[in-house]
Amino acid sequence: KPVGLVYFGVSYLNKCEVFKLNLNGDRKSIKNQCILYAVDKIYDIIIKNWRVKNNESFICRTLIIVIKHTA
Questions:
Q1: What is the dihedral of CA 30, 35, 37, 41, to 10 degrees?
Q2: Facing residues of 17 across strands?
Q3: Are 8 and 34 in contact (CB under 8 A)?
Q4: Torsion of CA 65, 66, 70, 71, to 10 degrees
Q5: Neighbouring C-beta atoms of residue 51, cutoff 10 Å
Q6: What percent of the chain clears pLDDT 70, i.e. is strictly above it?
Q7: What are the phi and psi torsion angles at 54 (to 5°)?
Q8: FRET partner for 15 with CA separation of 20 to 30 A, picked from 4, 7, 9, 63?
Q9: Do residues 40 and 16 touch, judged by C-beta distance below 8 A?
């Protein structure tokens, strides 16, 4: 596998999205790029679903997942 090949998934509202990234750089740079990309995607999902559902518990569960995986 290439060093910069990263997969991550986001599960929400009975849906699951998987993302494949091919990143460049050293290990730390790749990790940071992946975190930024993941947070951006999760933000997009929250905004999209907030408009549809306006469900605070969805927002809280999603943010907990982000914090757990980026800490």
A1: 160
A2: 10
A3: yes
A4: -60
A5: 8
A6: 68
A7: 50, 50
A8: 4
A9: no
pTM reported for the whole predicted model: 0.66
Residue 17: its H or E element: strand 15-22
For residue 9, pLDDT over 70 is answered with yes
Burial 5-27 (b: 16+ CB within 10 A, else e): ebebebebeeeeeeeeeebeeee
CB 61 within 8 A of CB 45: no
Query: Which tokens is 69 given?
Result: 């995986």
Q: What is the pLDDT of residues 26-42, one digit of tens each?
A: 988 988 898 889 888 88
Q: Alpha carbon 49 to chain centroid distance?
A: 15
Could you tell me which residues are beta bridge partners of residue 15? 12
